[in-house]
Amino acid sequence: MKSYLLLLLCCLSFSSFGQTIPDPGHRTDFITDDVEFNSAGITLAGTIFKPKHPYGAVILIHGSGQETRMLKMASLLAENGIAVLTYDKRGVGKSGGVYVGPEAGTNNIDVSNLNLLALDASAATNALIAHLPANHGPLGFIGFSQAGWIIPLAAKENRNVNFMILFSGPVVTTLEQLRFQFYTEGKPGFWETHTEAEVREHIRSDADRYQFAATDPRDALAALPIRGLWLFGGKDVQIPVNLSIEHLDALKAKGKPYEYRLFPELGHNTSFSKSPDPFNVAIQWIKSGDGNMNRK
Q1: Which interval of the chain is the signal sequence (predicted)?
Q2: Which residue of 25, 131, 238, 276 is most buried, as measured by CB atoms within 10 A?
Q3: What is the pTM of this model?
Q4: Cβ proximity of 137 and 202 under 8 Å
Q5: Whole-angstrom distance, CA of residue 235 vs CA of residue 242
C-alpha cells in the first residue's frame, strides 16, 4: 500500500488547479456550461468554458488521485481565448463509475485503469467538439503528472487530437517511475545528496516491489504524428526528469515533433501557483501555432 500512497503525491501537487473560480455569470470574456457525456458504460460530468472567439480548444486530464474538475486552470485558459472541457474523474464528484487508486486499496497505474482513463479522455474530446463551432482551431490535451501515460493512449485513440501538453508528465514506464519514487521517498532535498548516475543505476537495477504489466508511453508516442510539449521541473522527486528528457530526445531524433522546457528551480509542481512561467510557455506554444498539426 505504501507504494501507491507515494504515487498519489504526483497528483496532489497540482490540486491548486481545482479551486473554485469567480461566478462565471459576471464574466464577459467566456461562458460556462455544465455537461454530461458517456464513456465505457458510465456518465461523466464536467464543465465547458467557451471564450467568445476561441482559437484553440483543450481537454484537461487529471493526475492520480480523487480529482474533480480543474476549474481554476480552465478559467486561466479561457481567459486566454482557449475553449476547455474539464471533468470529474470517474468515480469522483458527479461522475459515475468506480474510482481506482491508493485510497481504495487499488492500483491506479495498472494497464487496465490507464486504458480506461484514456477512453474517458477520448470521450471528453468528442463531447467538447460537439459543443464548439467548426472553426474552433487546433484541439489538444493538457495534462498533469500521471496524464503522461494517459494522454498518449488517448491521443492514439482519438484522431481529432492535434497536440498535447504535459506538465511533469513521465516519459518512462510505470514501474520505472515507482522505482524512482521509492528511492527519493518524496524528499525535497533528495537532489542535494544524490547524483544522476546513482538514480539511473537504481532505476535500472532495483527490484520491483509490485508485479504488474508496465505501461511505456513511448509505445504510443512513437506511433503518434501530433506535436507535444513537456514542461519539467529540475528538482522533481516524483518522476525521473533527466531520463524522461533523454527518451524525448531519442524520439525527436527519429523525427517526432516533440519539445520540452526545463525549469531548473521548480519541482514536480509546475502549476501556476508556484510559477507562471510553465503556464505562460504553454499558452505561447498554442498561440504560436506549434500545437496545430493536422493528422493524416
Answers
A1: 1-18
A2: 238
A3: 0.91
A4: no
A5: 10
pLDDT of residue 15: 46
Helices 111-130 and 147-157, packing angle to 10 deg = 60
Residue (of 94, 37, 85) closest to 61 by Cα position:
85
Grid cell locating 196: 544522476
Q: Considering the domain delimited by 2-287, tell me its CATH architecture.
A: 3-Layer(aba) Sandwich (3.40)
pLDDT digit string, tens, across residues 102-159: 888 899 999 999 999 999 999 999 999 999 988 888 999 999 999 999 999 999 999 9
Which phi and psi (to 5°) does residue 58 adopt?
Answer: -140, 155
Q: In this structure, are residues 171 and 248 in contact, taking their beta carbons and an 8 Å threshold?
A: yes
